[in-house]
Amino acid sequence: MVKNGLWNSLDSANHLGVDFRSLEIKVSRSENLPVLPQIVSQVLKLADDPNASPKTMERLVESDSAITAKILRVANSPFYGLSGCTSIARAISVLGMNQIRSLIVGIAYQQLLSGKQSSTNFNKIEFWKHSLAAATAAKILGKLKMPMKSEELYGAAMMHDVGLLVMDRFCPDQLDQAIRYANETGMELWQAEQLLFDFTHCQVGKILADRWQITGMISDAITHHHDLESEEQFYKTTCFVAAANHFAHMCGFTNSCPKTGHEIPDSVLEAVDLPEEQIPVILQVVQGEVEKAQSAFQIGGERAA
Ligand SMILES: [Fe+2]
Ligand SMILES: [Fe+2]
Questions:
Q1: Does pTM surpass 0.70?
Q2: Which ligand does the CA of 222 lie closest to?
Q3: pLDDT tens for each residue of 255-274
Q4: Looking at residues 45-66, what average pLDDT do you find?
């Protein structure tokens, strides 16, 4: 890749004052990390428990009053359509355990974004819209191709770019530079990061996933969604998250990055077994669902800037 303009002098991580090892130490020792509400890790664990009952879920949700209030608000939105629903028990019985789990992940993830972003070029609202769009796309693709995994794919895709939140907090100037570079050159953000710093938001996200004790397919999707060749154990689900990320970009939710010319690589299409001619139809469905989800979560309707 060719560097140009003001970037000619930027040749290595040293020029930008960041290297992965020091960032890793800083992040893993910090008390100032984004905090994943406890309920999310419990809900994720519940997914692996064959004995988990709606009652267990109900108790868990009701232990967090802020989440309870938000679930009821979102469940009563036109998207979920539970008009007049005032209890978590009813929300669970109508929407089902899986949908409630996705809702909790979405709501909790949205809470992570409170507070101002530090990077000038990184926009947290756009980040949230991109995450929600990817999650929605992953769920739709999952329903088509891996129905048993569709809700888990939703959670994994929701969190896939969490490394950007860490970069915004711990190296905002570098994140600014990478976003600017991506926009000037038209390359993807992870490529700009790799070129400028020799690491990407994926590796940074893995540090946070470890601190949050997130393992399995979600951790792998965070770590490998731009580098599928390095994925082993959860190749299939990581490919779905990678595809969902591309769909989010193609729908215009570009996460502060270049808006045009985004395509799904053939290797990803092949991995998720999606014929190219189905892309426009799926894009349309994703687009419509994202718009409805945005209004359910009360996010502004405009697309990524
Ligand atoms: Fe990414
Ligand atoms: Fe992404």
A1: yes
A2: 1
A3: 888 777 778 989 999 999 99
A4: 81
Starting from the CA of residue 132, give the closest ligand. Answer: 2
d(CA 46, CA 67): 17
100 CA from centroid of ligand 1 (Å): 25
Q: Where are the domains of the chain?
A: 18-296
Q: State percent of the chain over pLDDT 90.
A: 42
Give the residue, 165 or 79, on which the prediction is more confident. Answer: 165
H/E run at residue 41: helix 38-47
Residues with beta carbon < 5 A to ion ligand 2?
Answer: 161, 245
DSSP H or E stretch at residue 42 = helix 38-47
Q: Which of the ligands is closest to the CA of residue 201?
A: 1
Domain 18-296 listed as CATH 1.10.3210.10: yes
Element (H, E) at 79: none
Q: How confident is the model at residue 184 (pLDDT cuts 50, 70, 90)?
A: very high
- What is the distance in A from the centroid of ligand 1 to the CA of 280? 22
Residue 20 CB-density burial (10 A; 0-12 exposed, 13-18 middle, 19+ buried): middle
Chain-centroid distance of CA 78 in Å reads 24
33 alpha carbon – ligand 1 mean position (Å): 19
Residue pLDDT, tens place only, 86-116: 899 999 888 888 888 888 888 888 877 777 7
Ligand (nearest to CA of 245): 2
